[in-house]
């Protein structure tokens, strides 16, 4: 099979990030999580609790003393491979302008750091 079949097409580039986050489900339950990749449209998180695809949640991301709370939806999951951690791709939804600016600032900084290596 051609490798092109497995090519990932992204509208926005993703950048590596290691940030603490708190995911809050519609029922009010919160879980600590970790953000490992960030883009203008979403992020990849690891959490100790499995959250199904399609679940809407709020994700509170803390980066260098700055905090941003974003509505999001889980669009894909990765198995925990028996270690009790689940990976999830989330897409941001209906970002308020101040939160969009915060994410844009983080992405701009991450892209500059990537190019300075």
Quaternary structure annotation: single chain
Number of E strands: 6
How would you classify the helix and strand content by structural class? alpha+beta
Question: How many H/I helices?
Answer: 1
Strand order of the largest sheet: 1-2-3-6-5-4
Order of helices and strands: EEEEEEH
CATH topology: Thrombin, subunit H
Name the CATH architecture.
Answer: Beta Barrel
Overall outline: globular
Would you state the CATH class?
Mainly Beta
The CATH superfamily is identified as predicted glycosyltransferase like domains
State the low-pLDDT regions, or none.
1-7
Total individual domains: 1
What can be said about the biggest beta sheet?
Answer: 6 strands, antiparallel, barrel
Mean pLDDT: 86
First-to-last CA distance: 35 Å
The helix content is: 10-25%
What is the radius of gyration? 14 Å
Strand portion: over 45%
């Amino acid at each position: 099979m051609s490798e092109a079949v497995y090519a990932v097409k992204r509208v926005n580039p993703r950048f590596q990030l290691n940030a603490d986050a708190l995911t809050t489900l519609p029922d009010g339950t919160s879980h600590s999580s970790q953000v490992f990749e960030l883009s203008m449209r979403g992020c990849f998180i690891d959490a100790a609790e499995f959250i199904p695809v399609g679940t809407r949640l709020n994700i509170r991301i803390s980066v260098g003393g700055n905090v941003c709370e974003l509505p999001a939806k889980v669009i894909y999951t990765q198995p925990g491979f028996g270690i009790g951690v689940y990976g999830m791709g989330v897409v941001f939804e209906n970002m308020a302008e101040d939160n969009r600016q915060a994410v844009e600032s983080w992405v701009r900084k991450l892209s500059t750091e990537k190019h300075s290596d």
